[in-house]
């Protein structure tokens, strides 16, 4: 019994005047030798650690509020509060405090603020001996009372004494009776004085006075007094709003009268703080700290009372998900939940934990899934807010629910897909809802907040699920707006599913920018999942179509996506980019931008500068060989010249290094160890063959070069160690595995790295075409055969000695099946 009686939560007031929870524990008052006095100790119930050790100082003013709270200031900016589970425990500790200070436990405040400042005490010596004498509560004394109330606000001691005087004489109720008289007599002057008086009493910041003023019998008259601001020509009609306009909606009848009263009181007090009272200036900030605390603790109590009433909550859920519930009722239920979750933010972490677990147990997520798909905009918006509370509280809980759900339902109705659909279909021209939903999706797919358990990781499970079931929904608008027929014939819109979507419509452009932002986040955080997705869907090519958008922000989003990919310095991505000739749209955008010095110009140049500074050899070679003619005229930055220099230095370095290669390779020439391929390399070989769309080796011949394969791979690894780049022009015969690596392709770029003399001549014809900005499609026909020749020569030829170099010149004749 004593355990629950002494159970408390410890709160401290932070800089924003909000109460921070410091933990739950059990309080005791004992003599502490170190502090030389009786002290309050709170030990945490979880681990027995000390949450609070505070000496009961004879000079500190302690306040007892709402029967279960004790509040005091330890130092100038350090306020503490103990919130007791039971009134009896609060009374017990209060008696101990009063005993130390020599006070009667019946007081609500230990009045030792008088000792707070010696200087003030001596300045005001004549008044310290007795309380402030209040004028009699009569109409003709209102001006005097108003002057008195406003005059004490600057002195903490006099504020304290006025508060006691008001409390002892039941003065507030008398003032409110005078208010009714003044209103009946239409005594404007008296009403203006009453406004000053009541506002001044609120600024005394005393919980005991608040309890009187905010009681059911007084609060409306207090609001009435605050309507008559002398600065206004006409009084405001706050009471009319609170009684007639503001309707108390009970989605399900609340039977507990105390709970109803608390809800009414909290709403009205919040209204006084937010609407009626002026925004406090910097100097008045602390004047209303107790009012903020009053509202805060009321909210905690409301949430706790509702949470404990399980019948009430389960009834709310039942009606929310019941198909028979009409739309108006459902809207009210959702709004109730939104408010409920907002109130829950006042709970301390352990209680908030319990709160959301209760909601999860009752089925909040399946309920949200139904509600988020509804037509009513208000309902969807409130449901989104509730969803955001849940995601912020526990992304893992949401992920777990979605993965379980995937096992028993279609992709279309999965919660995450419902969220993505809402994002895509947001009707707001500024996409306010879509931006909020995008933020929530980002939180859900962020590996940083995924847990790794001993036997399985949430990260791999959830990302597998997301890429299999949801990614296609997210990228659908992007793929629909960048499809082939869209790019070539913009006027034919009916050619794809979403024919209502026009790529250059501002709202669509904003949506595509949001989707790209999410995909860019994936590139940065998801490694192989997104890599497979980009390769399989040829996603970067589709994204770069948006470089042509008339909306520069969208073109920049597309560029940022590519920049993030290149920033990874991953050779798989680099091969994909060079093979697909994907720099072409970027370079076209740079050339189309002309001499304008704008963000697009700077961003494109930064991309190439990054490649130069980081010395990404495969990309440098590709850019110089294919596009240098088009770029050499750009001299206001040294980036492109620098790329050419890097390229030539690398060629020289490789030609020197490769002179010594044959002797090394010769020793390994006939080795046939059956090493297994690394997983990544194997994946690349497989992917490349699938992606080609060409039967490079006729099916019947596929087994033929198998015998030579380990050797080819061995050389592949050798040259990979030699910084993964080769000389593609001066020493074509020495770049067999290099030729294989970069020319296994069907685009213009392939021709440049090919090994045979034939392919070089074709390269000479096709390179200018590609650098003039024409699409790689025009050149792919002329180069596909060449690429096939070059790459396969690379697969089966070994640059070991002079004989083999001679052989290579005649190789197309010797192996007609490969050259055909």
Q: How would you characterize this protein structure?
A:
Among the domains are: 4-101, PH-domain like, CATH 2.30.29.30; 141-295; 309-393, no CATH class; 413-484 and 501-548; 569-655, no CATH class. With 820 residues, the chain is an alpha+beta fold. Helix 30 (584-592) crosses helix 31 (599-614). Strands 4-3-2-1-7-6-5 form a seven-stranded antiparallel β-sheet. The chain has 42 helices and seven strands.
Explain the layout of strands and helices.
Elements lengths: L1 H4 L1 E7 L5 E14 L4 E8 L5 E6 L6 E4 L3 E7 L2 E7 L2 H15 L16 H6 L1 H4 L13 H11 L3 H13 L2 H15 L2 H15 L4 H7 L5 H7 L12 H8 L11 H20 L12 H20 L1 H12 L5 H18 L4 H14 L1 H9 L4 H17 L1 H12 L8 H10 L7 H13 L13 H12 L1 H11 L2 H5 L17 H20 L2 H10 L1 H6 L7 H16 L3 H9 L4 H9 L6 H16 L2 H15 L7 H21 L1 H8 L10 H14 L16 H13 L14 H8 L4 H5 L4 H15 L4 H21 L5 H13 L1 H4 L1
Antiparallel strand pairs: 1-2, 1-7, 2-3, 3-4, 5-6, 6-7
Helix pairs in contact: 5-8, 7-8, 12-13, 15-18, 17-18, 17-20, 18-19, 18-21, 19-22, 20-21, 21-25, 23-25, 25-28, 28-31, 30-31, 31-33, 32-33, 32-39, 37-40, 39-40
């Amino acid at each position: 019994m004593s355990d629950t009686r002494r159970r408390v939560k410890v709160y401290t007031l932070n800089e924003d005047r909000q109460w921070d929870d410091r933990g739950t524990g059990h309080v005791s008052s004992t003599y502490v030798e170190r502090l030389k006095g009786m002290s309050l100790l709170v030990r945490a119930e979880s681990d027995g650690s000390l949450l609070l050790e505070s000496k009961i100082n004879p000079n500190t003013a302690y306040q007892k509020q709402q029967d279960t709270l004790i509040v005091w200031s330890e130092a100038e900016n350090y306020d503490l509060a103990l919130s007791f589970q039971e009134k009896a425990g609060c009374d017990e500790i209060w008696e101990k405090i009063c005993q130390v200070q020599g006070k009667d436990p019946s007081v609500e405040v230990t009045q030792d603020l008088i000792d707070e400042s010696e200087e003030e005490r001596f300045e005001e010596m004549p008044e310290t001996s007795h309380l402030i004498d209040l004028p009699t509560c009569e109409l003709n004394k209102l001006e005097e009372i108003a002057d008195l109330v406003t005059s004490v606000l600057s002195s903490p001691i006099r504020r304290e004494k006025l508060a006691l005087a008001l409390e002892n004489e039941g003065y507030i109720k008398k003032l409110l009776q005078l208010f009714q008289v003044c209103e009946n007599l239409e005594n404007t002057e008296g009403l203006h004085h009453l406004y000053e008086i009541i506002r001044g009493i609120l600024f005394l910041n005393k919980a005991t006075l608040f309890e009187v003023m905010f009681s059911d019998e007084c609060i409306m008259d207090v609001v009435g007094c605050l309507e008559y601001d002398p600065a206004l020509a006409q009084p405001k009609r706050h009471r009319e709003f609170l009684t007639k306009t503001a309707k108390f909606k009970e989605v399900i009848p609340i039977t507990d009268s105390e709970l109803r009263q608390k809800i009414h009181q909290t709403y009205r007090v919040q209204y006084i703080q937010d609407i009626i009272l002026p925004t406090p200036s910097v100097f008045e900030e602390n004047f209303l700290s107790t009012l903020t605390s009053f509202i805060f603790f009321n909210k905690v109590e409301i949430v706790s009372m509702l949470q404990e009433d399980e019948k009430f909550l389960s009834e709310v859920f039942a009606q929310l998900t019941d198909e028979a519930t009409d739309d108006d009722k459902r809207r009210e239920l959702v709004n109730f939940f939104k408010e409920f979750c907002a109130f829950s933010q006042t709970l301390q972490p352990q209680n908030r934990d319990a709160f959301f677990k209760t909601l999860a147990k009752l089925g909040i997520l399946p309920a949200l899934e139904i509600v988020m798909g509804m037509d009513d905009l208000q309902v969807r918006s409130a449901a989104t807010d509730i969803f955001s509370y849940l995601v912020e509280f526990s992304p893992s809980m949401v992920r777990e629910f979605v993965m379980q759900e995937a096992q028993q339902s279609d992709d279309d109705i999965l919660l995450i897909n419902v969220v993505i659909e809402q994002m895509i279909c947001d009707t707001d021209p500024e996409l306010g809802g879509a931006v909020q939903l995008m933020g929530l999706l980002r939180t859900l797919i962020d590996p940083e907040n995924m847990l790794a358990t001993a036997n399985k990781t949430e990260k791999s499970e959830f990302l597998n699920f997301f890429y299999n079931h949801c990614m296609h929904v997210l990228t659908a608008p992007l793929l629909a707006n960048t499809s082939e027929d869209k790019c070539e014939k913009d006027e034919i819109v009916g050619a794809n599913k979403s024919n209502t979507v026009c790529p250059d419509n501002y709202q669509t452009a904003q949506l595509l920018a949001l989707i790209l932002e999410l995909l860019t986040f994936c590139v940065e955080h998801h490694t192989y999942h997104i890599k497979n997705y980009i390769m399989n869907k040829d996603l970067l090519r589709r994204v770069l179509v948006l470089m042509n958008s008339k909306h520069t922000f969208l073109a920049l989003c597309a560029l940022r996506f590519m920049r993030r990919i290149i920033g990874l310095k991953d050779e798989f991505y680099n091969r994909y980019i060079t093979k697909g000739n994907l720099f072409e749209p970027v370079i076209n955008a740079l050339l189309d931008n002309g001499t304008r010095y704008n963000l697009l110009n700077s961003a494109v140049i930064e991309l190439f500068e990054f490649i130069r500074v980081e010395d990404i050899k495969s990309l440098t070679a590709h850019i110089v060989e294919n596009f240098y003619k088009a770029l050499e005229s750009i001299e206001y930055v040294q980036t492109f010249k620098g790329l050419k220099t890097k390229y030539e230095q690398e060629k020289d370095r490789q030609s020197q290094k490769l002179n010594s290669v044959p002797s090394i390779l010769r020793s390994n020439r006939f080795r046939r160890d059956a090493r297994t391929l690394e997983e990544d390399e194997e994946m690349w070989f497989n992917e490349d063959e699938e992606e080609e769309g060409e039967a490079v080796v006729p099916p019947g011949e596929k087994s033929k070069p198998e015998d030579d394969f380990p050797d080819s791979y061995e050389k592949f690894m050798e040259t990979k160690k030699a910084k993964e780049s080769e000389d593609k022009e001066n020493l074509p015969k020495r770049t067999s595995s290099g030729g294989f690596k970069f020319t296994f392709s069907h685009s213009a770029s392939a021709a440049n790295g090919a090994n045979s003399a034939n392919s070089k001549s074709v390269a000479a014809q096709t390179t200018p075409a590609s650098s003039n900005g024409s699409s790689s499609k025009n050149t792919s026909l002329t180069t596909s055969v060449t690429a096939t020749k070059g790459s396969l020569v690379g697969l089966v030829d070994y640059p070991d000695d002079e004989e083999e170099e001679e052989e290579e010149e005649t190789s197309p004749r010797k192996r007609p099946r490969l050259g055909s």
